[in-house]
Write a structure and sequence with these properties.
Strand content: 25-35%
Bound molecules: NADP nicotinamide-adenine-dinucleotide phosphate, L-homoserine
Structural class: alpha/beta
CATH superfamily of the largest domain: Dihydrodipicolinate Reductase, domain 2
CATH topology of the largest domain: Dihydrodipicolinate Reductase, domain 2
Number of strands: 17
Largest sheet: 11 strands, mixed
Length: 429
């Protein structure tokens, strides 16, 4: 049994790729005992050979020709950390078809083509693993697939984007400006190559799609997830939230309900005493509710070079053990159900509304009656400031169906006494 050496190829030598390279070197002395084999990086695919040469001990491993990797039969495991849909998708597919196990951190791809690629892995008796695609260093895919697999999971929820959590934390705790915080997150290696994916909630949406698919055994793709980012959140909203005893977090929510799967990402006001309120900086936290286990919470670094490399390398070690034990790969698509997706209009939530209205008698009463006529019950309302002919009012609703709130907003749009709805943020609980 076994193999003295398992050859590995690394695709991409950016933030995560560099971390993987370092962990591979750090772990080398332990490998014979830990894995009953030794992993060797045989090739690293890069775009710019000169730039990459500064990062490796032996430059002969560098290549910019994918064929040198896919056609090399001695390479057993391919680690994809380039990102993006293409050419990463093609390379992963070709690697699996060539009988190589693949480990990837690529949520963009898994959230769209996960099912198809898992089928390809299964057909070719190799592994496709993607622990690092969700919540950086936190082990969550493994627990959902294995440790919690004897549960009916009804909810997976949490903070799953390090960049936005870092930005919101800096804005809340240090009064930092949004763009300053985004620049810092990029420099620290948390943000995606195009940070739009982070700040618009797409990255968290991809992670929610991946976790929901595994947790509910039904394929949820990125396009099934409703996404809203943090670009509309202002210092004023953060200040109001603080006054009301809340903090603003970008939350991902996946629920398996009688009406279908709810999958959404948006900013949310959460009580400052809630455990998620204290998850700060690049840390992530994921709550899972299962019928047998009850509540479980996972917490740790959600982004960055070394935490993400930890997750990637855990998968590489697992794939290596399967090769050593000749188990022929054990990952397969677990989506054996076809659950409907619930529309965002049908979700029930509480809402925080900040509105600029005309500063004259009767406006507050009219706003309240529009909400009431649309079945939106008010929990709290206050006029917060007056300036000339304008006043600002803040409304917190009871639990209402989102479509009812949207109907009320449509009515406000047609009313001259409502100048704007400056903020609309869902409230936790
Ligand atoms: P990155 O720093 O931008 O690194 C990507 C690297 O891949 C770059 O060096 C890039 O080369 C290289 N690359 C891109 N296309 C290539 C191609 N066609 N051929 C060869 N090399 C290519 O990104 P990253 O932060 O390491 O992220 C990599 C992956 O991990 C992404 O899927 C990301 O979503 C995921 N991830 C990242 C984190 C994190 O904290 N950063 C956490 C979890 C998951 P150039 O330098 O020439 O552009
Ligand atoms: N850009 C991602 C984040 C990286 O900020 O969470 C980890 O997936």
């Amino acid at each position: 049994m076994g193999k003295d050496v398992i050859n590995v190829a690394l695709l991409g030598l950016g933030t995560v790729g560099t971390g993987v390279y370092k962990v591979m070197k750090q772990q080398e002395p332990e490998m014979p005992e830990k894995l009953n084999t030794v992993l060797k990086i045989k090739k690293i695919l890069v775009r710019n050979l000169e730039k990459a040469a500064k990062k490796v001990e032996d430059t002969s491993v560098l290549t910019n020709d994918w064929k040198e990797i896919v056609q090399d039969e001695s390479i057993d495991i391919v680690i994809e950390v380039m990102g993006g849909l293409e050419p990463a998708g093609t390379y992963i597919k070709e690697a699996l078809l060539a009988g190589k196990s693949v480990v990837t951190a690529n949520k963009d791809l898994i959230a769209v083509r996960g099912g198809e690629l898992l089928d390809t892995a299964q057909e070719n008796h190799v592994d496709l693993m993607f622990e690092a695609s969700v919540a950086g260093g936190i082990p969550i895919i493994g627990p959902l697939k294995d440790s919690l697999s004897a549960n009916y999971i009804s909810e997976v929820m949490g903070i799953v984007n390090g960049t936005t959590n870092f930005i919101l934390s800096k804005m809340t705790e240090e009064g930092m400006d949004y763009y300053q915080a985004l620049t810092a997150a990029t420099q620290l290696g948390y943000a995606e190559a195009d940070p739009t994916a982070d700040v618009e909630g797409y990255d968290a949406g991809r992670k929610i799609a991946i976790m929901a698919s595994i947790a509910f055994h039904s394929r949820v793709t990125f396009e099934d997830v409703y996404t809203e980012g943090i670009t509309q959140i202002t210092a004023k909203d953060i200040a109001y939230a603080r006054e009301l005893g809340w903090v603003i977090k970008l939350l991902g929510v996946a629920k398996n309900t009688a009406e279908g799967v709810e999958a959404r990402v948006h900013p949310m006001l959460i009580p400052k005493e809630h455990p998620l309120a204290t998850v700060s900086g690049s840390y992530n936290a994921v709550f899972v509710h299962g019928d047998a286990v009850d509540d479980v919470m996972f917490y740790g670094r959600g982004a960055g070079e070394m935490p993400t490399a930890s997750a990637v390398m855990g998968d590489v070690f697992a794939a290596a053990k399967n090769i050593v034990n000749r188990s022929g790969g054990f990952t397969r698509c677990g989506c054996y159900k076809k659950l409907p997706i619930k529309k965002i209009d049908d979700i029930i939530s509480r809402y925080f509304l900040r509105m600029e209205v005309e500063n004259k008698p009767g406006v507050l009463a009219t706003v309240a009656s529009v909400l009431g006529n649309n079945s939106v019950s008010i929990a709290q309302v206050s006029q917060t400031s007056k300036q000339g002919d304008s006043a600002e009012i803040v409304v917190v609703t009871d639990h209402v169906r989102e479509c009812h709130l949207k109907d009320a907003l449509l009515t406000f749009q047609k009313m001259s006494m409502v100048k704007s709805v400056s903020a609309l943020i869902r409230v936790y609980g």
